[in-house]
Amino acid sequence: MKKSINLSVPNLDVEPILCNLRECIESGWVSTGGRFISEFEGKVAKYTKSERAVGVQSGTAGVHLALNVLGITSENEVLVPTLTFIAAVNPVTYLGATPVFIGCDDTLCIDPNLLEKFLEEECILKNGITYNKKTLKKISALILVHVFGNMSDMERIMEIASRFNLKVIEDATEALGTYYTEGKYAGKYAGTIGDIGIYSFNANKIITTGGGGMILSKNHDLLDKIRSLSTQAKKDELYFLHDEIGYNYRMLNLQAAIGTTQIDTLENFIETKTKNYKRYKEAISEIDGLEMLDFNIKTRPNYWFYSIVVDEKVYGINKDQLLRALNNHGIQTRPIWGLIHEQKPYEKNQVYSPEKAIWYHDRVLNIPCSSNLGDDDIQTVINLLKSLKKK
Ligand SMILES: Cc1ncc(COP(=O)(O)O)c(C=O)c1O
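That is the input. Now the predicted structure with pyridoxal-5'-phosphate docked in place:
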């Protein structure tokens, strides 16, 4: 039988995980209390050189809570990328606010030039508040997505955000482990530069807890509020008194029991993913019509996803034909998500310069990148990429 090679699967160290899960089950600490939650939070904070982190149910819950504590309501518009997974955008709508879509640069992350141009030409700043000229609504926050483990141009973006008085939420769900090696933010990890950062531990992420997320911020008051909102805003544990509308978003001890072992192996995963990326890149550079996308050269990326750009004119088939051909050989690949400004719930929203996002959307394919990919798996993918080219 033909072996299938998946895109991005969990890499779980069975014995330590079983040991931790056994402790949860035998002690009965399977829900939102228990020692693994604070242990995992502490390890993520230490790894990212942050003071604190708060564990939640998912990255989506993290984005929702971040927007909530930054005061986003139906009176606001929030700037978001169009090239992203929709989970980065939907929480804006949960709060009744309106997303405004901005295009990307060659890192696939939001383009600081477009962001600046939009704010300078399409908005006005009055008494410290930025208004959209078209709708007259307040724009008070920006969500960045560090796409595929890459990192947005934080130096430019933070400067622009400060000029227009925008709060910055870093959706670093795909970029745990990526950090700047040069410039003003050298040594700073994705998710730790803006006002609030979010990680996801969904099954396809670089480390996983099945489902789960973590929120970081330098602002302890915001983190306290996030923690409270994640547990139904319970102000009194015994009498169940609540002073706000909260959510059931707290991380489970069961999830953290997995996470606390996964974070210990993250640097090994990144090492393997770096090696595999370089091997693919070298081989793919010899195939006319295919090019592997680089990561931001000012960073040490986590190399989460490997993206190739298919030039149909040279390669002979387009990215969709290549996707189907690879899938027929048992190789799971994935295009970039459908751009969000084109999705049904957002068709009527304002969008600014999505041309480059559309260009990449039409040409990019992600190829298998799991940290437990075998050498022979990589060779199989490379051989197929060579043989599927139309002469
Ligand atoms: C860019 C982005 N944002 C948000 C999320 C949501 O994370 P979760 O699946 O943990 O809710 C994901 C991943 O799933 C993502 O890739």
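DSSP finds twelve helices and 18 strands in the chain.
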